[in-house]
Amino acid sequence: MGVPNAAGYPQYSGTFIPEIWSGTLNEKFYAACCAMAISNSKWEGEIKNAGDIVHIRQTPDITIRDYNKNQAIEVENPEAGIIDLVVDKAKYFAFTCDDIDRYQADVALMDDWGNDAGQQMKIVVDKDVFANIYADVAATNKGSTAGAITAGFSLGVTGTPIQITKSTVLDYIVDLGTVLDESNVPETDRWLTIPAWMGGMIKKSDLKDASITGDGKSILRNGRIGIIDRFELYLSNNLAVVSDSGHNCFHALAGHKSAFTFAAQMTNMETLRSERTFGDVVRGLNVYGYKTVIPNALADLYCYK
């Protein structure tokens, strides 16, 4: 019903004043997804259907020995380890777009709904990856004694999560970098996934001063966190969250792009006429898999706000 009418006068809205279906859809917001951006996808082109296995060869460790003149040398037969990337996960969507709805709305509903399905698919996959991948972090790169050489960094453990404040957030980012340094992780292609509130802590920290970042503008001016201590930072609302010690605790995951591999393919995407209604059915099947191939190239900060 439109504008109310005065007492004793008829309401013409919906009768002489027609109702219309807008040709413009309301904007919808989606959680940002970053699993594909922080992983390597070298084997993605080799998968076709759910259940496929990609055998990944590992470079063996060659032994270095002392040598004395005239001694007989020992020759080893290195064995290249195999890691299997199993594409064993599948997600699908299917919806009907009725002919009447499509006509009345006067917009490309199937295209819009299909785009929504694709965005929702990314979010579901992103959450699945982050819900599991932190468990693969090497024991030396997490917990209360992180650090392959010093064991001198506390990154949080179940029952004792790390509290992050604007005064400590940069310290823990640097600690994550040092932990990866002690595992000989290359300095290039490092990334760090953090919850949105942690990004806010960074903006409240000393990095708000442009002279510290070396940028022409502070991060409060341009809104971009960018790179801190060799980490490309990604804000994500899809990180694993657990309730611990009265807090919502997050697994802020750091690593190198070679740490885990991810492969996905939309193997089926089709439109067909519905057998039960006057409309079209749109459905899609996405198969994917992921595998940690270098656990030492990951680090886990178990923290809360």
Total strands: the figure is 12
- Supply the number of structural domains: 1
**CATH architectural label:** Alpha-Beta Complex
The biggest sheet amounts to: 7 strands, mixed
Shape, principal axes of CA atoms: flat
Report mean pLDDT, rounded to a whole number. 81
- CATH class category label: Alpha Beta
- As a percent range, the share of strand residues is 25-35%
Please estimate the helix content.
Answer: 10-25%
Radius of gyration: 27 Å
Cα-to-Cα separation, first versus last residue: 46 Å
Q: How many separate helices? A: 7
Report low-confidence residues grouped into runs of 5 or more.
none
As for the CATH topology, it is phage-related protein like fold
Q: Which sequence of SSEs, written as H and E, runs from N to C?
A: HEEEHHEHEHHHEEEEEEE
Structural class: alpha+beta
Map the helices and strands:
Elements: H1 35-38, E1 53-57, E2 82-86, E3 89-98, H2 99-105, H3 109-133, E4 162-163, H4 169-182, E5 190-194, H5 196-204, H6 210-213, H7 219-222, E6 227-228, E7 231-235, E8 241-244, E9 247-256, E10 260-273, E11 279-292, E12 298-304
